[in-house]
Amino acid sequence: MNTVQLIGRLTRDPEVRYSQGTIPLAVARYTLAVNRAVKKDNEHPEADFISCVAFGKNGEFAEKWLKKGMRIGIEGRIQTGTFTDKDGIKRKSFDIIVSKHHFCDSKDVSGAGEAPAAQNTGMKENTDGFYEIDEDMEDDDLPF
């Protein structure tokens, strides 16, 4: 079984490109900084920097909603591969292919007061941290 669940912070905004086929496919690449569980001598936790790739609707979601510094959760699978670089050296690649994104912060990283999922969507945060969804909204307007 090849499943991965991670929680971490985006090290930069996702880089999104679209394929050149008859139906363009979004491909979003970003790096997730994931803290290790073990700390050394009361220091800050060490982090692993995990390369993530989201395709199609997940890539479009990443382009629209994910920003540098956000804490998100992802679900997906590990994919490894090999390639030859421009100098002729054989290299290995290790990526997480993302199947789901989850917001982990209740407030926008920029301090604007609304969670990223609520910005410009007509959703308002309750005092319990959940969002009320306007009954008139279409399913296509929701960020998930």
List unreliable stretches of 5+ residues.
109-123
CATH architectural designation of the largest domain: Beta Barrel
Cα separation of the termini: 26 Å
Radius of gyration: 18 Å
Q: CATH superfamily of the largest domain, called what?
A: Nucleic acid-binding proteins
**Structure classification:** mainly beta
The percent of residues in helical segments reads: under 10%
Count of beta strands: 8
CATH-defined fold name of the largest domain: OB fold (Dihydrolipoamide Acetyltransferase, E2P)
Order of helices and strands: EEEEHEEEE
Described by the principal axes of the CA atoms, the overall outline is globular
Mean pLDDT: 81
Major sheet details: 5 strands, mixed, barrel
Treating each run of at least 4 consecutive H or I residues as one helix, how many helices? Answer: 1
Q: In CATH, what is the class of the largest domain? A: Mainly Beta
Q: How many structurally independent domains?
A: 2
Going across the biggest sheet, name each strand in turn. 1-3-4-6-5
Estimate the strand proportion. Answer: 35-45%
Question: What's the arrangement of secondary structure elements?
Answer:
Layout: E1 4-10, E2 15-18, E3 26-35, E4 47-55, H1 56-65, E5 71-84, E6 90-103, E7 124-125, E8 131-132
Parallel strand pairs: 4-6
Antiparallel strand pairs: 1-3, 1-5, 2-3, 3-4, 5-6, 7-8
